[in-house]
Amino acid sequence: MKSNNKNKLAKILNQNGYSIIELMLAVAIFSITISGIVFLMIDILKSSDRAVVLNQATSLASEGLEAVKSVAIENYETNILPLDGFSGSLVFNNDSELWSLVPGPAENINSVLVQSESRNFERIIYIDELTTDETATSSLKYVRSIVSWNENQSTTTLEMVISNWSR
After folding, report:
1. Range of the domain at 127
2. Total number of domains in the chain
3. What is the SS3 string spanning the chain?
């Protein structure tokens, strides 16, 4: 009977040792899995933030093109036609509710649209004469709205061709 009890005791001791190894293995697998999930969540948050910033920059670039269209509709012959090689910014006049093009450096456009103070968005507008097959078409203008921000010197560019469609 005593040998039977010794066998039972040996089985219990062996089972406890095996359970500790199983527990350690389970904790290791769980830790690795949780670490992977945490890193994945951090990457998702960074990607989401980059998408928000790119969306804001694209909206600001689109606003630039729409403002140039507004200036062109106002008076293409005097406001757009003479602007070959133009680079500058846009200014909105609250009194007249009209946009105007101002030659010079890029404008800082941290406006109501942009909710983040940590980013420094700048927009510059380029207007050039459209050339096709080495010939210039003076009534057509190639317009680029470039928005840059201080995150890894990132930029987004929107382009359009504009003409004096009303004549």
Report:
1. 2-163
2. 1
3. CHHHHHHHHHHHHHHHHHHHHHHHHHHHHHHHHHHHHHHHHHHHHHHHHHHHHHHHHHHHHHHHHHHHHHHHHHHHHHHCCCCCCEEEEEEEECCCCEEEEEECCCEECCCCCCCCCCCCCEEEEEEEEEEECCEEEEEEEEEEEEEEECCCCEEEEEEEEEECCCC
